[in-house]
C-alpha cells in the first residue's frame, strides 16, 4: 500500500469522458485537482461516489424541453473492484459499502488512487442498493444517506484499505463533512470515553480542510434535526449545538467550518463574500484553476510543444505564449474551430461558418447564470449581427431535474433561435459533458458569461477557454475580477457592483454587453485581426499561465496541507 498523507473527499469527480461521476464545475475541479496532484506527486488519495446512473443524460425535445435518463456505462471497463468492505449505520440498518478503484496517472507516471463508493450489494435492501445510483438525485433524505456514505463510509473504507498515515482530510464542499463526525467518534473511542471533549475537537480540526464553493444559500446542505437524528442515529445534536447545528437545522457547511483548521473560498471575491455569509470564521481564498494539459485543445497543444517545450510540467511557462507568431495562433485556432463545427454538423445537423464570429456559452442552466441575457432585446441583437455580417451562438448545459426555471431557460433559448434564424445561427448542443466542453472552449472565438453577481463563486470554463487563446466577455464576478484586463485578456460586462435592485433582469448589463460587442469586439475581430490575435496570446500568457490547478494545488499544499 502506497503511503499517502492527504485524503480528498468530493461528492462528484470528473475522471474520464466515459465515467459519469460528475455533474458540472465542482466535479471537473475535483478531477483537475487530482490530475495536477498526480503531475506534482502530491501524496493524496481521493474518495468519491460511484454514481452508477450518473447525474443524468440530457435529451431535448424539438422545442427545447429537457428530459432526463440514466447514463449508460460499463463500470468494469474503467474500474477495479476492491475486496474490502465496510458498513455505515443508516436509519438503524447496517448498509454495506464497497469501493472501486480508479488511477489517475501523472506526467511522470506517478499515480493517485481514487475510490468510488458503491452500495449495490446483495446484502443491502433494495432501497439501500440504490443509494449510490444518482448524483444529486432524490429527496433530502436520499441526499443525507449519500452524504453519510461519502463521509462516514469513505473514512471507514480508507481505514479498511490500510491508509494509516493520513493527516489531512480535505472536504471539497460540505457534502463530505460527515467525515468529521466519524473522526470525532474515533477520537473518543480511542480515548475510551463516552463524552466528546474539546481535545477531540482540536484533534479533528488540526486534520481537516474545507473548501466552500457557492455563495448561493441553496448550495449549502441543511437538514432538520429530526431527519438527521433518524438517519444518522445520533442523539447528541442538541448537546453539541455549537459544533453540529446552526439555528434549528443540521447544516453541513457549519459542521465543516467548525471542524476545519483551514477554510477557503474559490476566488478572492468569493472568500470575502463567504466571510460575510458565515460571520466569525477565518476564511481565506485560493482561486480555482483548470488542468492545463486536459483543457488545451490538440492544435494549441502542438503549438505549445513547439514553442514552449515543458509547458505541461511547468504551466507558468505559458507566459512565453506572447512570442508565438500570430499566423500560427490563428491557424491553430481555425483548426480547433473546425473540430467544433464538425461536431455541430454531426450532432445538430447545422452548418456553421468558420469565418463568422462565434460565441460560446455553456454552463449549468439556472436562473442566476442568466443564459438568456444576450436575448434581452432581439432588435438590438439583430442590428448588431447585421452590421457584423453575421453572428453565431453555441449553447450547452443541463438544468437540475428539479429546477423548473432552469428548464424554461433552455426552452427560451430555443425560442430565440426560432425568432433569429434568418440572421443569427444559434445551436444548443444536447448533453453538455467533458468532451463537448473541450471542443467548445477550444473552438469558439469568444467565451460569454453573464451571471448575476455575486453568485458566481469562481467559474472555470473561461479559464479553459483562455488556455486555447479564447478571450472572455464576462460579468465582473468570480475569477474574472482577477483575470480581466480590459481589452488585453478579454472584456468586462458592466461594472464591478452589486445592485440588489435590478441585476436579475439586467437592463444595464445588457446595454453594456451589446455595446462591447458592437463597438469593440466585432470591429476588432473583423477589422483588426492582428489586435484580436494579440488578445488571444495574452489570454494564454496572462491567464492560462496562472488559472491552472498546478498553481492552485501548490497553494493548497502551502496553506492547507503542510501549513
Ligand atoms: C468546466 C465545466 C463546467 C463548469 O463551468 P463553469 O464556467 O464553472 O460554469 C461544467 N460542466 C462541464 C462539463 C465543464 O467541463
Automatic annotation (TrEMBL):
The record's listing under InterPro entries reads: Agluc_phsphrylas, Glyco_trans_35, Glycogen/Maltodextrin_Phosph, Pyridoxal_P_attach_site
What Gene Ontology terms describe what this protein does at the molecular function level? glycogen phosphorylase activity; pyridoxal phosphate binding
List the cofactors. pyridoxal 5'-phosphate
Q: Which NCBIfam families match?
A: more_P_ylases
Q: Which PANTHER family match?
A: GLYCOGEN PHOSPHORYLASE
What role is this protein assigned?
A: Phosphorylase is an important allosteric enzyme in carbohydrate metabolism. Enzymes from different sources differ in their regulatory mechanisms and in their natural substrates. However, all known phosphorylases share catalytic and structural properties.
Q: What is the E.C. number?
A: 2.4.1.1
- Write out the GO biological process terms: carbohydrate metabolic process
Q: Which organism is it from?
A: Gimesia panareensis
The record's catalysed reaction(s) read: [(1->4)-alpha-D-glucosyl](n) + phosphate = [(1->4)-alpha-D-glucosyl](n-1) + alpha-D-glucose 1-phosphate
Q: What is this protein called?
A: glycogen phosphorylase
Class in the EC hierarchy, top level: transferase
Q: Which Pfam families match?
A: Phosphorylase
